[in-house]
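@channel anyone free to eyeball this complex?
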Amino acid sequence: MQNMNLYSRGDKLFVRINIFLLTLFALSTLYPFIYIAAVSFSSGSAVTAGDVIYRPIDLTLAAYKYVWNESQFWVSYMNTFIYTVFGTIVSLLIIIPGAYALSRPQLIGRRFFNLFVAFTLWFNAGLIPFFLNMRDLGLLDSYFGIIIGFACNAFNVILLRNFFEGIPQSFEEAARMDGANDFQVLWKVYIPLSKPAIATVALFCIVSRWNGFFWAMILLRDEGKIPLQVFLRQTIVSLTSDEEFGSTLLEAAYSYETVTAAIIVASIIPVLFIYPFLQKYFNKGILLGGVKE
Amino acid sequence: MKNSSRTSSLIQHFKREWQIYLLLAPLVIWFLLFLYKPMYGLQIAFKDFSLFKGVDASPWVGLEHFRTLFDSDMFIRAIKNTFIISFLNLLIGFPTPIILALMFNEIAQGKFRKSLQTIVYLPHFISLVIIAGIVINIFSPSTGVVNLLLQKLGFEPIYFLTQPEWFRPIFIGSGIWQEAGFQSIVYLAAIAGVSPSLYESAVVDGASRWQMMWKITLPCILPTIIIMLIIRIGNLLEVGFELIILLYQPSTFQTADVINTFIYRQGLVGNQYDVAAAAGLFNAVVAFVLVMAANTISRRLTRTSLW
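replying in thread with the prediction:
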């Protein structure tokens, strides 16, 4: 806000309290991450004794070594990469051309097709019919099922369509004069002009693929195909109930808590890497464009 | 004659514009196959469904599954819990991002504000399994920080995640922790659109920052608040059931079991597909009515509507 120098005394107090409260909120947001990181680098016995508060106690990499030697961890990590990369590519291959077509004024039935997409925002068949449909399509327990079954959603289509609609006709006129067809107009005019919107959609896809667990948990039986998040959930569930793990670990330098914490850290790191890109793109226009209609 | 000229102009149109339809085709096929075909499958809510016979060949049973559902205490409890949790979520979770945005707006643009924002947006991008893992860790009765703190203050440790009365506060709290920061972006964008001249003239009139916040900023972002409220009400039944599945256990079902977790257990775990689909249909219809109602009300009241 402007006029920062025009503070009265009451304003100064107001600003200080405000900064204090916001800092407190940010710290409480950050704290759980710091805590988990601290646990992952601590010894199992220090965690069990309740000594770990915000920094590692008995600094050790034992939990990471345990995770490193767990072959299922690497299998799942690889699977998550596969789902994220191919899932995002397939999503963009469907969403970009579709959104372009929906933004064309000459499309016959344009209103119908837009309603066809938007209706799915308001009405959804739900878990059971979706599951049975995947089963009927033979997409249970398959990489392809996870990749194609969640490739699209109305929100991303509408977001990109709105962005395409906002591009002035004049941009494509020159290309049309040169005899460009729709494929060329999309490729040479719309896509280059829509980089921020496409990047936003791509990043949404990447994040939801990286984090997705529910349907992977339902649809995949083969341990060799499960993504990292399903593996993490299994670890949390199985280690909680597995007495043996706890007792054999009493002497070991790691424990249930430190192992889960280490897996959590390992799966957050890639998100932290793309986070700066994410931040760059969630600016006002793009998000609001998706919200409206 | 007229008809055939229309047909020929249509043929002309497709000859000229076929590329658009080709570009649209994958999207339409995907929506038909993965979103509309399941809607056809919803009919099993009225059938005695068996996997062996399939959707079409299973015999009709009318409203039997709905009678079963409404006779079941567990389903009634799930409806009740869904509404209680989403209402609490609306009451506490809706204003929080607005307040956050107003507070951020009072800090000058700069490194400090930017780093605070970077921190509060982050949890939105973290998976629910991790959120659940963190919650389980932090509230653990033996090693969790919350209980360590309680013990230092001389209290007995609390088994938070096994006690029904603690489920809702923990679930709603973790939802706010995860999403409030990110949701504030929409309001910050709206605030950025407020004309600076309004503030300038208010300063000339000697208004305090507190007054400007209430009398200028808040009224100016009201349309955005209303849009977000409509979306929120429309999604009222979508309590984050995935996080509930990760956090609840039989001892907390009493306060934690919502319609979608009920469907998950009946259908996907218990294989009672038809009854679960009936519960899903009920859920979808109520949700649809809510969106439509919210939008109509908003159009009447404020002329701000979503479509």
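from a first look: Chain B is about 75% helix and 0% strand.
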